[in-house]
Amino acid sequence: MTQTTARIKKAGKNFEIIVDLEKAIKYKKGESKAVDFLELDKVFSDSKKGFAASESDMKSSFGTEDIYEIAGKIAKEGEILLTQEFRDEEKEKREKQVVDFLSRNSIDSRTGNPHTPERIKSALEQAHVDIKNIPIDRQINEIIQKINTIIPIKISVKKIQITIPAIHTGKVYGIINPYKEKENWLPDGSLECIVNVPAGMVMDFYDKLNSVTHGSALTQEIKE
């Protein structure tokens, strides 16, 4: 359990609460609806000095004096101060996710053999790669470019042709867009496209595609 401060400024007034860091972040992300993150049932104007916020300031700024309702608004709308330990742990988690992804989905571009997790991790460190707090598929190309200066690497992909009925194209587009190579809209409104999906993610991609289209999308792997 890590204790930290969450804070917000409203109408020129500062409001702070003492929270459990992990629980407060879950609440902010919408992963929890319970306001169970308060370490002290009190709203401060300055928590370090122990100055409590006045009831009138809370009422005028939040429309209520209820501590839990105010705490929820502070956690959701305000800033949760992250400790260095938490930042380091999150960085380590992101690095592990990237290493796992690349060890499952990449190969040596010269030999066709897979890279070991140890070799990938070493390349990330040598290339001083800054792994961002965004989904892997949105930054993997940039990461590959950087570590390709250290080790010869490329993503092993499956090329798939997909035909999606018109009724499902809107919902499917977000699934196929990160992997899309080209697309062709047919006269009946259906979508024909070619995607390049990392080999280790093919089954997950099919699951998402079939879930949205109820199995009506036609797929064919293209051998190169």
Portion in helices: 25-40%
Termini separation: 52 Å
- pLDDT below 50 for ≥5 consecutive residues: which ranges? none
- Mean pLDDT, as a whole number? 93
Count of helical regions = 8
Order of helices and strands: EEHEEHHEHEHHEEHEEHE
Q: What is the approximate shape?
A: flat
Across the major sheet, the strand order is 9-10-8-11
Summing up helix and strand content along with how strands pair, one would put the structural category as: alpha+beta
Report the count of strand segments.
11
Strand content: 25-35%
Largest sheet: 4 strands, antiparallel
State Rg: 24 Å
Q: Please, could you describe this protein's structure?
A:
This protein is an alpha+beta fold and 224 residues long. It has helices spanning 21-29, 55-62, 67-77, 84-105, 117-126, 140-147, 169-176, 202-213, and strands at residues 3-10, 13-20, 44-46, 51-52, 79-80, 106-108, 153-155, 157-164, 180-185, 191-198, 218-222. Strands 9-10-8-11 form a 4-stranded antiparallel sheet. The relative contact order is 0.10.
In short:
Helix content is 39%, strand content 25%.
What characteristics describe this protein?
alpha+beta, 3-stranded antiparallel sheet, 224 residues, 25% strand
